[in-house]
Design goal:
InterPro entries: EF-hand-dom_pair, EF_Hand_1_Ca_BS, EF_hand_dom, FAD/NAD-bd_sf, FAD/NAD-binding_dom, NDH-2. One of its GO terms (molecular function) is calcium ion binding. The chain has 425 residues and is an alpha/beta fold. It is 36% helix and 21% strand.
Length: 425
């Protein structure tokens, strides 16, 4: 099966012209030298944003929210013996290797092969340290009481001891709750499409894909069969592209034999709002993926935005002409990006004096300390982002210093003076 992870190796040997880039590099060489000096100044301890950074110091009660890449990796590498207690909180009691979820939808990988039970790693930690100070709670974090340093959690299991929220106290807390699928506010997404972010999503997609073929075998009209066997993927990012490729291979290699009477009617389409699929990757990778999709008959509907989703069709608008049309489907998978979880948005609102207005991520220092968290909160993963230093005040200061004659302009001679001063610092 062709996957995104092997694109780089496939591109080895492809020639890329560098002359344009070389010209740009030469043109900006002087500025680059100055910028290196500016970066050194930014890293100086005299800047408050750097001097206030404090790493996660061991001791007390540590709570980790989330069992995804951030939370799981932290727990695996953490020396739990240096803490009074370590509590991992997550509604999902296993780590999920999400890049392989598309392969689960078509049976290339079994579900159990891409998960790691959390209690297994907890047991290893306790056995290694000889302490019983590490535990896992299958609950969902709902709210933080920053003043009392308590995380309120909801029991999401089918058998509950109480309907009251569980109080989990902490001294240090790491937010690694990840993100949720982004519906973009499009009506019908929640009701009529499938996400591909959890194991249950993959299982349900596989079931509905097979059901579409089963139903197509009993349909009386070719038009209905074509509708049932049209599989639409919204989003041309890594998840959408990987799933579309896996599904196309599944249809060609296995479905074509099991459902030989209708398999020739199956079609896979990817709807992408940008000009190219994988548009955040290197252009060569994007071109390769596009060419590969052409070879295996996957249609890419570019520069198009989904305006609504109906029970058996998506309403798509051409971004250039603004014309709308319906695309029928049997199964629609929504892979159009991520959005912050309610917990993240609630925490951002509590820290609004230190977090960007209408922010979608918890802003942190380079040590992943949450801004406004008073040294007790850290964040990692899709719910967080490192805050960039504000360069405007520094730029204004450099301009004022360089403008010796105060005429509001910087001459070449003034530029040379400030350039020498920066290099001397």
């Amino acid at each position: 099966m062709r996957t995104i992870s092997c694109l780089q190796s496939d591109l080895q040997g492809v020639g890329v012209e560098h002359h344009a880039l070389d010209c740009l590099v030469h043109a900006l060489q002087d500025f680059g030298e100055v910028w290196e000096e500016v970066e050194c100044m930014l890293a100086s301890s005299k800047y408050v944003w750097m001097s206030n950074m404090t790493p996660l110091e061991p001791g007390g009660n540590l709570v980790i929210l989330g069992s995804g890449w951030g939370g799981y990796s932290l727990l695996k590498k953490l020396d739990t013996s240096k803490w009074e207690s370590v509590t991992l909180v997550s509604p999902r009691n296993y780590f999920l290797f999400t890049p392989l979820l598309p392969s689960v939808t078509v049976g290339t990988n079994e579900p159990r092969s891409i998960i790691e039970p959390l209690r297994k790693i907890v047991m290893k930690k306790n056995k290694k340290t000889g302490l019983q100070n590490t535990r896992y709670l299958e609950v969902d974090a709902k709210h933080l009481d920053l003043a009392r340093k308590i995380c309120y959690c909801e029991d999401i299991t089918s058998i509950k001891a109480t309907d009251d929220l569980l109080e989990v106290p902490y001294d240090k807390l790491v937010v690694a709750v990840g993100a949720q699928p982004n519906t973009m506010g499009v009506p019908g997404v929640l009701e009529y499409t499938h996400f591909l972010k959890e194991m249950d999503h993959a299982r349900l997609i596989r079931k509905n894909v097979l059901d579409s073929f089963e139903t197509a075998c009993t349909a009386t009209s070719d038009e209905r069969k074509i509708e049932l066997l049209h599989f639409v993927v919204v989003g041309g990012g890594p998840t959408g592209v990987e799933f579309a490729a896996e599904l196309r291979d599944f249809i060609r290699e296995e479905i074509s034999q099991a459902y030989w009477e209708v398999a020739h009617l199956a079609k896979v389409s990817v709807i992408q709002s940008a000009e190219n699929i994988l548009n955040t990757f290197d252009a060569a990778i994007s071109r390769y993926a596009t060419d590969h999709f052409k070879r295996i008959d996957i249609e890419v509907v570019k520069n198009s935005r989904v305006k609504a989703v109906e029970a058996s069709a998506v309403v798509v608008q051409d971004m250039a002409t603004k014309e709308e049309h319906r695309i029928p489907f049997g199964v629609c998978v929504w892979a159009a990006g991520i959005a912050p979880r309610p917990f993240t948005k609630d925490l951002i609102s509590q820290l609004k004096d230190c977090q960007p207005e209408n922010g979608r991520l918890l802003k942190t220092t380079p040590y992943l300390e949450v801004l406004g968290g008073k040294g007790d909160l850290f964040a990692i993963g899709d719910c967080a982002g490192v805050a960039e230093p504000e360069l405007l005040p520094l730029a204004e200061s450099l301009f004022d210093e360089a403008d010796i004659n105060k005429d509001g302009k910087i001459s070449f001679e003034e530029y040379e003076v400030i350039y020498r001063k920066i290099r001397e610092r």
